[in-house]
Amino acid sequence: SSVSFQDVLAILCLVSLAAALDFKYHHAEELEAYLKGVHAAYPAITHLHSIGRSVEGRGDLWVLVLGRFPTHHKIGIPEFKYVANMHGDETVGREILLHLIDFLVTSYRRDPIITRLLNNTRIHIMPTMNPDGFEATKVPDCYYTRGRYNKNGEDLNRNFPDAFENNNVSIQPETQAVMNWIKNETFVLSANLHGGALVASYTFDNGNSVTGSLKGYSRSPDDDVFIHLAKTYSFNHAIMYKGTGCDNRQPFPEGITNGYSWYQLEGGMQDYNYVWGQCFEITLELSCCKYPPADQLEKFWRDNKVALIEYIKQVHLGVKGQVTDKNGNPIPNAIVEAKGRPHICPYRTNEQGEYFLLLLPGTYVINATVPGFKPMLKTVEIHDSTGNFSALKQDFSFSEVSIRSRAASCPKTPLYQELEQASAAVKPTLHVLVLTTVMLVIFK
């Protein structure tokens, strides 16, 4: 079919929009036009789709995917995501993600590091999770506006199922869209971008006695990895690592904090990612002022540029592989965990039988379990592989033919609360034993 002059003009218009990204705030129409322009200009390495709509219905939740295989998951290539502006009045992340997109597409095939990053990683970028809140923020303010919430007045970062208590919230369309997105992709690493402080905050945001909350810190089984992830961001940021905080308020040593130690919150997105999404997520607070003047955006981009790239590279930490049967067919829903760090909702293989475990350099025993068969244990020596853009590869092949196990997912109930109740009569030293027992009971 012939292409009309109008079509050519429209494409040229989109491409020129992509070419000229100013340091200013982009409202809904401009943001959409920019993303469409980037996709039109770089169709081979980008894929643009909407994962849902906001309450008002006019706001698409746009995601731009970047990589050598942008349209679909490829075996062995981990999935990474950045999400910004879930609080509509916290705006810096929204804009710097647009500049990150610009930097990635223009550096591909020019910068060898970015080229290798995009060839070996599938990167999903959502500049705004709360388009309605952003548009509702008519008067920018450093501290607080109603634009924080979605159109229904709900705080999206208190709206997810919680692993520690029943938070009895009505799940919002934006939250549901993100939950579905997490379920449909094999995300390994993520960050959500906020404003109002300058710190990298990590899991858990909520807690109970099982995770050590009585000592004012809620520790996950992967606490060492989370500290490393948070420090990767803060030390590659222009000033975050100095830990001075904002206006002499609470200082954050090394620019990082355990979420619960800072303040307890329930229904947060990062805990949900870790417990139910098999995805390590941290929360990045990027500006003391929630909605700073547009003339500061260029400096915010410069301050965060290196950290944003270095953080993505961490998706290649640890070990990855496939679990197959004797005919080489993938086994989905096999449990693959590192010994000594059991997840309350065990991490399982995806449809292609793949697993990804983020682990710091060291020696680990990886345990692959397929219901009905003897577990397979393999000892692995992990080195820092982020510079090679590939985690250590360790496959598991079961000598029998697997009966396809039905999809297993943990209930979206307060798993840690159930564990705490089960542990109540047991000495604290037996927590790990109880954790294992309860997990067996829950998932048998």
Pick out the low-confidence regions: 430-434, 436-444
Rg estimate, integer Å:
22 Å
Strand order of the largest sheet: 1-2-4-3-5-8-6-7
Secondary-structure element string: HHEEEHHEHHEEHEHHEHEEEEEEEHH
Name the average pLDDT: 91
Largest sheet: 8 strands, mixed
What is the overall shape?
Answer: globular
Give a verbal description of the structure.
With 444 residues, this protein is an alpha/beta fold. It contains twelve helices and 15 strands. The radius of gyration is 22 Å and the shape is globular.
In short:
This protein is α/β, with parallel strands linked by helices and 444 residues long.
Task: Supply database-style keywords.
31% helix; alpha/beta; 12 helices; 444 residues; four-stranded mixed beta sheet; eight-stranded mixed beta sheet; disordered C terminus; globular
Helix/strand layout:
Layout: H1 5-19, H2 28-41, E1 46-53, E2 60-66, E3 79-84, H3 92-107, H4 112-120, E4 122-126, H5 131-136, H6 173-184, E5 187-194, E6 197-202, H7 223-236, E7 256-258, H8 259-262, H9 269-276, E8 280-287, H10 297-313, E9 319-324, E10 335-338, E11 354-357, E12 362-369, E13 376-382, E14 392-393, E15 396-397, H11 415-423, H12 431-443
Parallel strand pairs: 3-4, 3-5, 5-8, 6-7, 9-14, 9-15
Antiparallel strand pairs: 1-2, 2-4, 6-8, 9-11, 10-12, 12-13
